[in-house]
Specification:
The protein has 289 residues and is α/β, with parallel strands linked by helices. It is built from nine helices and twelve strands. The model has no long low-confidence stretch (mean pLDDT 97). The protein binds 2'-monophosphoadenosine-5'-diphosphate. Residues 68, 132-137, 158-160, 163, 200-203 line the site of 2'-monophosphoadenosine-5'-diphosphate (ATR).
Length: 289
């Protein structure tokens, strides 16, 4: 990480509501690093120019996060990819080297796994059910499939089956997805038998959203994980709680993907003191939403 004033930031569209600036500014302050973290709301047609400029020696930008809808789009701009980002075929963190080479990483998968571990969930031989087939599911599938403690099954349901089929076809070319199965209805997810249910869709963000699953199939021997963190407790999590399940929102995943991104930029582990500050920054932002 540079010591003179450098720029980090997030690209996406929209990015106005991102909590990443608060998290990273808190980290920079705690580390004594003179750096800023900016929002870069970019339209699709602005991407070529933005990435061309990143190669300029005069650019102050040394690291970026990437969010919806560009995590897959930016892969083509990278000079190299980490082995994990290559398998996911999506990038949420970019390191820009001194010679202006762009190295793409994906910290969404490891961020999720770190949080899952923190929650005390052991993945070995477990049955996992997932709602959604977007960028988050993409990263979660790959990280789970690469684990030595492999789950028994990962069953996935998505509103648009073709999107799920396309995702799984792409991932099957990159890693062993033999434990993954696409299903055509919520019933076929077999949630009654699942040890972990993950919602990666945006259903639950709005107050009148109806959860994709009925309360009856949730049970006390499972973890219900909603990647949504605003609201902090979706209806899905409320239902899970009512049935005695362990529940978690996605704040931990957001936090750890940020910590891991910072580690890539700093090229060293982020200590506990800095993590505490990052979490405080995150909570400050969340309480303002
Ligand atoms: P992310 O990168 O956060 O995963 P995304 O790539 O936009 O976000 O993915 C959104 C996911 O939420 C998709 O799986 C989408 O389903 P479709 O493939 O059918 O679009 C799912 N999703 C969004 N709104 C939904 C809704 N109202 N009901 C069910 N699924 C929904």
């Amino acid at each position: 990480m540079k010591t003179s004033k450098t720029t980090y930031g997030i690209i996406g569209y929209p990015v106005e509501h991102s909590l990443s600036p608060l998290m990273h500014h808190a980290a920079f302050k705690a580390m004594g690093v003179e750096a800023e973290y900016k929002l870069f709301p970019l339209k699709e047609e602005e991407l070529d120019g933005f990435f061309t400029n990143l190669h300029e020696k005069s650019s102050p930008i040394f690291g970026l996060n990437v969010t919806v809808p560009y995590k897959e789009t930016v892969v083509k701009y990278m000079d190299s990819l980490s082995p994990f980002a290559q398998k996911v075929n999506a990038v949420n963190t970019i390191v820009i080297s001194d010679d202006r080479r762009l190295i793409g990483h994906n910290t969404d998968g490891p961020g999720f796994l770190t949080h899952l571990t923190e929650l005390g969930f052991n993945t070995r031989d477990r049955r996992i059910a997932i709602f959604g087939a977007g960028g988050t599911t993409r990263a979660i599938i790959v990280v789970l499939c690469l684990l030595p403690a492999r789950p028994k099954t990962i069953r996935i349901y998505n509103r648009t089956k073709e999107n799920l089929d396309k995702l799984l076809k792409d991932l099957a070319e990159r890693c062993d997805t033999s434990i993954v199965q696409a299903v055509a209805s919520v019933d076929e997810l077999d949630i009654e038998l699942a040890d972990l249910l993950i919602n990666t869709t945006s259903v639950g963000m709005k107050p009148d959203d109806v959860p994709l699953v009925s309360e009856e199939v949730l049970h006390r021997d499972m973890l219900v994980y909603d990647v949504i963190y605003s609201p902090q407790e979706t209806k899905l999590l409320q239902m899970g709680k009512k049935k005695g399940a362990k529940v978690s929102n996605g704040l931990g995943m957001l936090f750890y993907q940020g910590v891991l991104a910072l580690q890539h930029w700093a090229d060293m582990p982020v200590n506990e003191k800095i993590k505490v500050k990052m979490r405080e920054g995150l909570m400050e932002g969340l309480n303002k939403i």
